[in-house]
Design a protein that fits this description.
Methyltransferase, Cobalt-precorrin-4 Transmethylase, Domain 2, Heat Shock Protein 90, Arc Repressor Mutant, subunit A, 4 domains, 6-stranded mixed sheet, 19 helices, WH-like_DNA-bd_sf, Schlafen_AlbA_2_dom_sf, Schlafen_AlbA_2_dom, Putative transcriptional regulator
Length: 571
């Protein structure tokens, strides 16, 4: 890291433009803090790694304090990396002189999948493994550790046989259709094999003590009622009255619909599509002189693909069989949440790349392909994004942890009449159609990153980088963040057009609190006070929060809680 880059990073930390999830500041004036080893473990296990700044104080001011005994300090950190962690890590060190004070920067790379979790040897793998979460180091649970270990190879939980079942628990009509399809598609001797040989080779059945029993995959795909064996391997379909899940409806109801969906995977998928068709908004368009077509709030092909992905890629290990998939429909969005994070080398950055193909449940995926449920392995997320683009909707949002994966569709159309009116009002020339679309996205979401641009416009990273750079050159966007965490925001002259109106009549600097909520939502009142205490007093923050709520710019998500415990999101 160059000194100029470090100074920019510290400045952006002060402005709240860099996630503290990626950067840890520690004073270390004399000795290294013992908590450093936890941060080294956490960053090694985190996607993209992270940076430790020794000689910099805490938020919100991040004062430059400097460190002493540089050689001894660096030697101690090197020994910590080599001797206290398993496996040892090799971060990059750099020294920087800022205003006569020396800072030691430790750039921690993400460990490879086969090396995770990196843990503190003295505490053991189940008590010494950490992951970065928000602005702290989170000790991994036993389940999370097991997931990292599992990512090193190919899990076989879906291939386990189930003693208390038999072939009679499977839908024979579905089995016969499956056999016929396998024979039709087969190349080689499997096409001429008998029924039981095909079912064994595809892992629908497994043999134990001379008896054939369904596997987990076989029961999930073809079972008459898999929930008799696994009660929570189901989906819960929820419809909320408001965008805030904690805000009840006019009659005090928390849900408009709370319906469990059970059966095998094919049945669940069909029932979910029917439920969505019943509760989604629809509009009718004329496609010919007399032909009409009903368009759903979200593209049907995207919904089906996302639901199939959740059912096929969720974690079916014994530790996760008590958790269910949840489909939550809000007035402004739809979220699909399934147990188990992304598997293997799949990340949020490459999840839409067709050449990245890793399946946690390999037997289940093979059966799904042979059944016709999955037609294009590796292309599912790309197909979802393409369908949303065709519908003029934003790409879905993905959130991933070791224990859960969420996909969220938003229903606001990017180039609706309001967006077109806004584009006309800003009068920026020399932008192509992709750039105009990206400008609207940044306007609605608050920022846009290179990966967002690629998914939004269907271009590669080279084109995205060039076109975003051109937007900076013409004054439409400003780049924020450093290197790997770069993102783009509307330039002040553009954002000011609307925000000057939005915040007119509110207390001075209310926009700063609104931006902090936007960038960290949902965020608790005490976190806002801690982060902005150098700018506002506690009373000033409370007053501005109250006014922002009154003007429908932010929402308190848990009104039943006392004010000190409330969390806020953008309206």
């Amino acid at each position: 890291m160059l000194t100029e880059e470090l100074m920019e990073l510290i400045e952006e930390l002060k402005l709240g433009k860099v996630e503290t999830q990626k950067v840890e500041c520690k004073e270390a004036r004399v000795d290294i803090p013992r908590s450093l080893v936890e941060s080294l473990s956490a960053f090694s296990n985190a996607t993209g790694g992270g940076i430790v700044l020794l000689g910099v104080g805490d938020a919100p001011t991040f004062p430059i304090l400097g460190v002493n005994n540089i050689d001894r300090l660096q030697s101690a950190v090197t020994n910590m990396c080599a001797q206290e962690l398993e496996p040892p890590i090799r971060p990059q060190f750099s020294l920087h002189n800022i205003s006569g004070r020396i800072l030691l920067v430790i750039e921690v790379p993400e460990a490879g999948t086969p090396e995770k979790p990196v843990y503190i040897k003295a505490r053991g793998i189940y008590h010494g493994s950490f992951m970065r979460q928000a602005d702290g180091d989170h000790q991994l649970t036993e389940y999370e550790v097991l997931k990292l270990i599992e990512n090193r190879g190919q899990p076989r939980h879906d291939m386990e046989f189930i003693d208390e079942t038999s072939e009679a628990d499977l839908e024979q009509e579905s089995i016969d259709a499956f056999i016929a399809r396998v024979r039709e598609r087969a190349q080689g001797p499997i096409g001429d094999a008998d029924k039981n040989t095909i079912l064994r080779s595809t892992r629908v059945l497994a043999e134990r003590d001379g008896r054939l029993t369904p596997t987990v995959a076989g029961l999930l795909m073809f079972g008459k009622m898999p929930q008799f064996i696994f009660p929570n391997l189901r989906v819960v379909f929820l419809v909320y009255p408001n965008s805030d899940p904690n805000q009840p409806g006019p009659n005090g109801e928390r849900y408009l619909v709370n319906e469990p969906v059970e059966g095998n995977i094919t049945t669940i998928l069909q029932r979910l599509i029917l439920l969505l068709g019943r509760h989604l908004q629809k509009r009718t368009v004329i496609t010919g002189s007399i032909e009409r077509d009903e368009l759903w709030e979200y593209p049907r092909e995207a919904l089906r693909e996302a639901l199939a992905n959740a059912l096929l890629h969720r974690d079916y290990s014994p530790q996760a069989r008590g958790s269910q998939i949840q489909v939550s429909l809000f007035p402004d969005r739809l979220t699909i949440s399934n147990p188990g994070g992304l598997f293997g080398t799949v990340t949020l950055d490459n999840i839409d790349q067709p050449d990245v193909q890793q399946a946690r449940n390999s037997a289940l995926m093979r059966i799904a392909e042979d059944s016709g449920i999955v037609e294009n392995r590796g292309g599912g997320v790309g197909a979802i994004i393409a369908a949303m683009r065709k519908y003029n909707l934003s790409p879905p949002l993905f959130k991933n942890t070791l224990s859960r994966f969420n996909l969220t569709f938003k229903n606001h159309h990017l180039l609706g009449s309001e967006a077109l009116k806004w584009l006309d009002s800003i009068n920026i020339n020399k932008l192509n159609s992709n750039q105009r679309l990206a400008l609207v996205y940044a306007h609605k979401e608050g920022r846009i990153a290179n990966r967002d641009y690629q998914r939004l416009c269907g271009v590669d990273t080279v084109i995205a980088t060039r076109e975003l750079g051109d937007m900076v050159q013409v004054g439409a966007l400003n780049m924020s963040g450093t290197r790997r965490w770069a993102y783009y925001e509307l330039s002040p002259q553009l954002s000011g057009l609307e925000e000057d109106i939005k915040f007119k009549g509110l207390p001075a600097d209310s926009k700063k609190i609104w931006k902090y909520v936007r960038d960290n939502q949902p965020v608790a009142r005490k976190e806002i006070i801690k982060a902005l205490k150098g700018i506002f007093t506690e009373n000033q923050i409370d007053y501005r929060l109250e006014k922002l709520v009154e003007n429908n710019l932010i929402v308190a998500t848990n009104l039943k809680e006392k004010a000190s415990n409330r969390k806020y999101i953008i309206k």
